[in-house]
Amino acid sequence: MNIIIGILLALSIIGLLDKVTGNHLGFEEEFDSGLSIMGSTMLSILGIYCIGVTFAQSHVNAIQALSSGMPFDPSILIGSLLSCDLGGFAISDRIAQTPLMGTFSGVIVASSLGVTISFQLPLFLSSLCKFNIIKVLKGLILGIAVLPVSFFISGLFLRIPMGQLACNLLPVLAFCGLLVFLVVAFPALFSKVLILAGNAIKLLCALFFIAVVIGFFIPSLALAEQELVYEAATIVIKMTIIVCGSMILSKLVLKYCPKVVTWIAGKLDINEAAAVGLLVSLCSSLSMLPLYHKMDRRGKMMNLAFSVSGAYVIGGQLAFISSLCSGSTVLIFILSKLLGGGLAIGLTHFVMSSAFKGIRPLRGILLSFQK
């Protein structure tokens, strides 16, 4: 068991014991908050995981034949569009040309770019609609812009040959470049399209969930094997327990390490609400949203950029990946997420300062992020 998973599991057990013995340690609220995600997580993951895996298994030869002429691995496309826990890992793992590429696409790419496209972009645009949506988009784009760098370094950690890695990163680089262009050129239209896409994904998850549940009770109508349903349910339970532990961990850090918050705020030149947002995003970017209105301008941009890679690194994604992958892969996943989050913070700090004003070709674009 990974040491971080062990710590979070222990904290979750402590939280449960505290809840049933009278809340003497004050962990009941955090434990219940983590536990409350089980229903929504089951709704999101169960159907699309089971049907996605079943489809990939049934059509793996057709998918590989269709992608044989592609200059890159087909799993890259899946990882770029779907979160690892929304079918990104399961499908990538089955259609990838090599196990290493399946891990790279389903773990590294899907846990940052995939989760941003399929989950965070639509969620943030709908949750933060009372704020300036264009600014929300620009913050997220700063996080997306650094992804090719973190992906390349993570691929080297996975020991993917450099030539193969560079070739497979070309579509990711093109996709990230397209997103940056759309945000800069057509921000209002792009935000509407993303909201519609997010609603479509939610509807698809719900329909798939209904289909799997019906098949579970009426085997003759089953679209997925019962063993696969049990596997998905087990993953959800593990994710819930780890999130419970991460919620308790975040409370301990904020309660006993206030100087850490002050130090982060001072170093990054943001207010304390923004510094707290960065810390709680490590567990879940959802925990950052209630603090958003208290953040200063730089802090908002930094939190949005950081969430692209840094969010969920010790939350649900960690639980999902650790339940399916080896310890070394889990470690590379953590390093990749933290590296991407750190690069996003650095880029945001650079853009929000005046350091770039001597760079004439990019000055106009970078200045637009300050407005």
- If you compute it from the alpha carbons, what radius of gyration comes out, rounded to the nearest whole angstrom? 20 Å
Question: Number of domains in the coordinates?
Answer: 1
Low-confidence stretches are none
SS content category: mainly alpha
Main beta-sheet strand count, sense and barrel state: none
Helix content: over 70%
Query: Average pLDDT value?
Result: 82
The N- and C-terminal alpha carbons lie at a distance of: 47 Å
Total number of helices: 18
User: What is the count of β-strands?
Assistant: 0
- In terms of quaternary structure, the protein is single chain
Strand content: under 5%
- Strand-and-helix sequence, N→C? HHHHHHHHHHHHHHHHHH
Shape: globular
Description:
This protein has 371 residues and is an all-alpha fold. It has one domain. 77% of the residues lie in helices and 0% in strands. The chain is built from 18 helices and no strands. The longest helix has 31 residues. It is globular and about 55 Å long. The mean pLDDT is 82.
